[in-house]
């Protein structure tokens, strides 16, 4: 009997408690870098089960250390933050939280990315491993990270001395709830998540009355032309054999229909899978924005600032092979090789900083019947995905599967106690 098989009764007994934890976290989401309540729940839980706990790392980050004899150091990571958007799932435990963001703007908040599930998974695994120390040997780092949605949480923890304050991991493991049949796990070697860059571009014009456009330099026309031109970067400058996405998600200008404003602001996001492609696109964005401003006779060049940046998530080949074998042995055909996703994560910041291998994978959360019906109709893209206001993971078996994947991965390194 494997170590994980011995823990099945513990998982069965733990599920009702974790379901309540999940629902509570879901009802009480917190914005990036303001995860004070969530962090306290996680930290207090780790204390209860014998971990050495350090709080407030990189503002709200939590690290729990459980030493259990000689053996590898395994780091398990969960992110804690929610999104500034209103929930529309209709769940009985849906969020109705409204707060103010860092700019003082009133926003709704909800867990439409699934980080509440991630926190619940890691809390459950932390308890199971603490209560079953005879099944493994080594040191566990349980890391609850803030600010993933804004791309600063992992870096904040690193900059707060994480590398010096805790044992260096031999492997760093993480997972994400995603659209896919609940009960399945998708893994792959190499690139699994794209690099992500978000930019803010402010364009300057000269304001005037709407009835006298000849006296203006119209930043609305400037911005509109730029939006259209930016779409040619992927379609005309990037090889069809390379993957890239560029989306302008925000265009803000003016206050009234008969006033030509002084400026306009674009916010865009790009995803790439190759550093050369990324650098080319960043250069092209600057070139196009400056050229459109010049063509409009703008009084000055645009201001281009970085909102956030996510590196590529590239799973270590040898570690991925070990993980694939473990998943295959435990889940059978419920474990499969997934394609890369066009999402981005700052999870790899930990592995890059420590210079150790890391592996990231996906856990399906969609009702299998709903997924198969959508697949048969060619409408998988119609299933509400992460960041949709209707995103609602199927609680069971998603909760159980995420516990099993994380434990299965940890045991691939901890092995069986001697």
TrEMBL record:
Gene Ontology terms, MF aspect: hippurate hydrolase activity; metal ion binding; N-acetyldiaminopimelate deacetylase activity
Enzyme class per UniProt: hydrolase
Keyword Metal-binding: yes
Residues annotated to bind Mn(2+): 113, 115, 149, 176, 387
GO BP: diaminopimelate biosynthetic process
Cofactor note: The Mn(2+) ion enhances activity.
Amino-acid biosynthesis in keyword set: no
Keywords for this protein: Hydrolase, Manganese, Metal-binding
Family matches, as InterPro entries: Amidohydrolase, Bact_exopeptidase_dim_dom, Peptidase_M20, Peptidase_M20_dimer
Domain Peptidase M20 dimerisation: residue ranges: 198-289
Cofactor(s) the record lists: Mn(2+)
E.C. number(s) listed in UniProt: 3.5.1.32
Superkingdom of this protein's organism: Bacteria
Name of the protein in its database record: Hippurate hydrolase
Protein's organism: Pseudomonas fluorescens
Name of encoding gene: hipO
